């Protein structure tokens, strides 16, 4: 019947389409305004090197926000996991043990967040705000406020595996983060855990009466984000060969922005993993791009704000609704005689 | 109880009590639902209907008392929603049966997903079965509504239809409908009542909770009146007309009648 609707319906189902369009338009603009920078491959290689830690954090945060929660403590996990790793490497010369322990430290932070939120029913914004101060405090304290240089890491296998350069130019962490996006897309959209997260974010009461263990799932959720953020911290620390106690501190707002402009709803219940991927690259390449165009550093934040607002507006307008409305309108132009398909809901019969 | 014991009961509650702290929500609840019987549970706000439902469905554990499902005793302390589902008890709540922003095929299988190893969803199979139920059991013929539709695209009556269809798909022996027609238009109420008739036709039992006496009267075989946490009357449909039931409840709510067991 409504052939036009079905023909164009897939556009609405293409996950993260509006935000991918924003990214594409943005790069086209940069290519025209700063051709010397954006026609070469180097700038992209540099994005592949700087965006992954942020993107990895954003993957975890997508789950958190889908569940209707928030986590402000992941920057502290980025610092803590970096410290645990560098300490083990420096003092024990055991990078793999450091790697495991760093992930475990992230899991611990996340687990405690989960207990506070799920068992003690502390609102997650409060629990994780406190956690972010506390764990930064712990990190500064045990690190003695000092940065630790681990230049020797560049010759190790672990460095090659996680942050090496493929063919001498391509940062491997870009592949790791892309792989994680794919993996966690399946967890969110094709796994019972992701489905539980969506229903909890939608309406925790519905989830409960349908037999989901809401408390346990929330604890697992925060623990998972702790581990993911710890991995982001490892990528960051290994890439820059140095741990410093304030690392991760600039990440909170950009990562949140990446998740939101990707189309994940602040209201919970829906998460867009592909959107988070493109959103992270938008956020991660905006500053460099704006600076490269030569309009001046004072413009950077203004343009960033504009792009974010445009992305969010596009997500609202070209959501599922928007596309079906567009398709209906197009169909009306083509076949004006038929009744609009929106009016048939009252006439459905039940056998 | 006035009702003689049936051959087989879908559900039996014996001396069930529930306290929240020192507040008594349910006191000395004894009742049963026969196999393929539709019981209308009537009571004012705060009478204890919802608490009773939550005990039946494993959301709360009772403070004391015994619960029998299909004549088998249930360990109330370890009784959960999942166990209730496994024992064939399904609940349709007035407003929390479906995840609003979730697509229909997820809403059908939430909590009981069809999975591959490691918990990955069999999306294709889930969609096929959900579509089958929507067309054949519930009777969705509309073009606009399918397995990919989100719950917030459905009317109130359609949502209850989906929840009832889901319950019947999962071989529920007893379906509990908690105020399924609140805030629905007359046409939508009609749809819901038709779904309840299907429950009866399918040989299942049902507890129908409602304020609306005429709805309850139409579909129930027996009425149980609950007030301030106690069962005050159990009346079979054969013994009372709609008018008499209405008058009885009105008198009761004005305090004109003491506890009656007609």
Task: Walk me through the topology.
The complex is a heterodimer of chains A (351) and B (262).
Chain A: H1 3-13, H2 17-33, H3 35-38, H4 42-66, H5 74-92, H6 95-119, H7 124-143, E1 148-149, H8 157-163, E2 165-166, E3 170-171, H9 172-190, H10 192-202, H11 204-209, H12 214-240, E4 242-243, H13 252-261, H14 273-292, H15 300-317, H16 320-334
Antiparallel strand pairs in A: 1-4, 2-3
Chain B: E1 9-20, E2 23-34, E3 38-43, H1 49-56, E4 64-69, E5 72-74, H2 81-86, E6 89-92, H3 104-109, H4 123-137, H5 156-169, E7 174-178, H6 186-201, E8 205-209, H7 213-219, E9 222-227, E10 230-236, H8 242-253
Parallel strand pairs in B: 3-8, 3-9, 6-7, 7-8
Antiparallel strand pairs in B: 1-2, 1-4, 4-5, 9-10
Gross geometry of chain A: globular
Instruction: Tell me the structural class of chain A.
Output: mainly alpha
Oligomer type = heterodimer
CATH architecture of chain A: Orthogonal Bundle
How many strand elements of chain A? 4
Enumerate the spans of chain B where pLDDT stays under 50 for 5 or more consecutive residues: 1-6
Strand order of the largest sheet of chain A: 1-4
Q: Describe the biggest sheet of chain B? A: 6 strands, mixed
State the helical fraction of chain A: over 70%
Tell me the radius of gyration of chain B. 19 Å
Please state the overall shape of chain B, judged from the principal axes of the Cα atoms: globular
State the gist of this model:
The complex is a heterodimer of chains A (about 350) and B (about 260). Chain A has helices spanning about 5-15, 15-35, 35-40, 40-65, 75-90, 95-120, 125-145, 155-165, 170-190, 190-200, 205-210, 215-240, 250-260, 275-290, 300-315, 320-335; strands spanning about 150, 165, 170, 240-245.
């Amino acid at each position: 019947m409504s052939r036009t609707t079905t023909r164009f319906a897939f556009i609405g189902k293409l996950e993260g389409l509006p935000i991918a369009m924003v990214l594409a338009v943005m790069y086209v603009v940069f290519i025209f305004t700063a051709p010397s920078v954006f026609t070469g491959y180097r700038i992209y290689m540099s994005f592949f090197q700087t965006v992954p830690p942020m993107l990895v954090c954003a993957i975890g945060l997508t789950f958190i926000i889908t569940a209707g929660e928030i986590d402000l403590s992941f920057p502290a996990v980025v610092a803590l996991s970096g410290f645990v790793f560098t300490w083990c490497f420096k003092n024990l010369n055991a990078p793999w043990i450091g790697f495991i322990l760093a992930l475990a430290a992230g899991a611990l932070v996340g687990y405690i967040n989960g207990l506070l939120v799920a068992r003690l029913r502390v609102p997650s914004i409060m629990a994780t705000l406190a956690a972010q101060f506390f764990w930064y405090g712990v990190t500064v304290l045990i690190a003695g406020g000092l940065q630790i240089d681990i230049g020797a890491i560049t010759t190790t296998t672990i460095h090659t595996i996680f942050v090496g350069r493929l063919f001498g130019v391509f940062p491997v962490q870009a592949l790791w983060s892309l792989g994680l996006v794919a993996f966690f897309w399946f967890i969110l959209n094709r796994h019972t855990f992701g489905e539980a997260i969506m229903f909890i974010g939608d309406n925790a009461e519905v989830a409960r009466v349908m037999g989901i263990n809401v408390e346990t799932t929330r604890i697992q959720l925060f623990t998972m984000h702790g581990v993911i953020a710890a991995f982001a911290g490892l990528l960051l620390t290994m890439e820059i060969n140095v741990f410093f106690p304030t690392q991760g501190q600039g990440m909170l707002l950009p990562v949140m922005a990446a998740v939101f402009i990707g189309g994940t709803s602040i209201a919970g219940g829906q998460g867009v993993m592909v959107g988070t991927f493109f959103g992270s690259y938008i956020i991660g390449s905006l500053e460099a791009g704006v600076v490269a165009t030569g309009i001046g550093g004072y413009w950077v934040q203004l343009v960033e704000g504009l792009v974010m607002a445009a992305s969010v507006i596009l997500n609202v307008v070209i959501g599922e609704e928007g596309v079906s409305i567009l398709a209906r309108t197009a169909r009306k132009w083509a076949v004006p005689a038929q009744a609009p398909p929106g009016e048939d809901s009252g006439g459905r019969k039940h056998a | 109880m006035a009702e003689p014991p049936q051959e087989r009961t879908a559900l039996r509650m014996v001396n069930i009590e529930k306290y929240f702290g020192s507040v008594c929500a349910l006191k000395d609840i004894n009742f049963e639902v026969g196999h393929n019987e539709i019981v209308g549970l009537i009571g004012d706000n705060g009478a204890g209907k919802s608490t009773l439902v939550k005990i039946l469905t494993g959301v709360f554990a009772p403070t004391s008392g015994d619960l029998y499902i299909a004549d088998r005793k249930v360990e109330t302390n370890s009784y959960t929603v999942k166990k209730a589902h496994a024992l064939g008890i399904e609940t349709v709540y007035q407003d929390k049966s479906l995840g609003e922003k979730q697509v229909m095929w997820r809403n059908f299988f939430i909590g009981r997903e069809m999975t591959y190893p490691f918990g990955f969803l069999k999306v294709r199979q889930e969609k096929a079965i959900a579509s089958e139920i929507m067309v054949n059991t519930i009777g969705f013929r509309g073009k606009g509504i399918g397995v990919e539709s989100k719950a917030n695209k459905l009317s109130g009556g359609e949502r209850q239809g989906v929840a009832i269809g889901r319950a019947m798909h999962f071989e529920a022996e007893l379906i509990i409908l908690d105020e399924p027609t609140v805030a629905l238009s007359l046409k939508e109420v009609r749809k819901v009542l038709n779904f309840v008739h299907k429950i009866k036709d399918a040989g299942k039992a049902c507890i129908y909770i409602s304020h609306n006496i005429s709805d309850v009267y139409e579909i129930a075989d027996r009425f149980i009146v609950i007030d301030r946490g106690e069962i005050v009357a159990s009346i079979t449909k054969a013994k009372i007309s709609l008018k008499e039931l209405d008058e009885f409840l009105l008198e009761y709510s004005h305090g004109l009648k003491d506890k009656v067991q007609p």
